[in-house]
């Protein structure tokens, strides 16, 4: 039996600055409990797709002009980012975006801004530390002085503090050494398996993403040009020629 669809993006168009058509009818589905990879080169539209889902386009002067986005059957195009967080949808932005002057622990705690129970927040913090032991050792360090890998872990940990059911993860491998990328993906896999967190992740590192995802969509120039189970994509000759070895 197929898992229910958590996220259903149906034919969306996105325009920046009222004139620049960047997404030209993108459709994708994310099943409950899945790890879905959104692949493609620089400028293909991956970040824009994630931002459309988490309603973070407005700050970029972008808007969804066609199509629909449904979360478990509910239309969400008009919900604010905060309302989406309350429904369990959290985006981890590209470039990690920790608050440089806050400590790792303070950064993590900012992720709990929609929650009020101090005891539950403390329990979540401990849970984040069990997945990211590195963050526990670095808890009192200012984020600015931690490594790129630790900052990426901090960004994911902060998202977890909102108790998400769906995490939109933008380019987690960016700027990280291969070994650290692998460490981050292993944690994503654990969170998916043990905490039942569903992931939609944008990645230029196609080979790494296809090793961890169940399903992938390949974007080019604002469109999905190919999709399929991750294993089939990894074995596909065109994918091998054009995308593997990219990241
Ligand atoms: P990257 O890996 O570089 O983030 P991407 O696949 O995520 O690539 P997007 O960032 O979604 O691609 O960009 C898609 C297209 O939209 C690009 O041509 C980009 O120049 C354009 N674009 C992105 N943000 C804006 C903006 N705020 N205003 C105008 N154009 C934008």
TrEMBL record:
Keywords: Amino-acid transport, ATP-binding, Cell membrane, Membrane, Nucleotide-binding, Transport. InterPro entries: AAA+_ATPase (IPR003593), ABC_transporter-like_ATP-bd (IPR003439), BCAA_Transport_ATP-bd_LivF (IPR052156), P-loop_NTPase (IPR027417). Residues 7-246 form the ABC transporter domain. CDD domains: ABC_TM1139_LivF_branched (cd03224). Coiled coil: none annotated. Belongs to the ABC transporter superfamily. This is ABC transporter ATP-binding protein. The lineage of its organism: Bacteria, Pseudomonadati, Pseudomonadota, Betaproteobacteria, Burkholderiales.
């Amino acid at each position: 039996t197929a898992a229910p669809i958590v996220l259903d993006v149906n034919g969306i168009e996105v325009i920046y600055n009222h004139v620049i058509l960047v997404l030209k009818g993108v459709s994708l589905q994310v099943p409950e409990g899945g790890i879905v990879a959104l692949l493609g080169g620089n400028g293909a539209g991956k970040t824009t797709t994630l931002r459309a889902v988490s309603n973070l386009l407005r700050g970029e002067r972008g808007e969804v002009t066609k199509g629909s986005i449904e979360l478990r059957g509910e239309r969400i195009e008009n919900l604010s980012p905060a309302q989406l967080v309350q429904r369990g949808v959290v985006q981890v932005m590209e470039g990690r975006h920790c608050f440089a002057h806050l400590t790792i622990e303070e950064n993590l705690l900012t992720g709990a801004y929609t929650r009020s129970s101090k005891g539950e927040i403390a329990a979540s913090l401990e849970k984040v530390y069990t997945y990211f032991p590195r963050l526990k050792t670095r808890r009192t360090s200012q984020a600015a002085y931690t490594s790129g890998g630790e900052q990426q872990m901090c960004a994911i940990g902060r998202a977890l503090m909102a108790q998400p059911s769906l995490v939109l993860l933008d380019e987690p491998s960016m700027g990280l050494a291969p070994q650290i990328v692998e460490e981050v993906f292993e944690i994503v896999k654990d969170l998916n398996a043990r905490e039942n967190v569903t992931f939609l992740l944008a990645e230029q590192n196609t080979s790494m993403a296809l090793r961890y995802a169940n399903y992938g969509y390949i974007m080019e120039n604002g469109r999905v040009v190919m999709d399929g189970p991750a294993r089939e994509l990894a074995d596909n000759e065109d994918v091998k020629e054009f995308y593997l070895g990219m990241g």
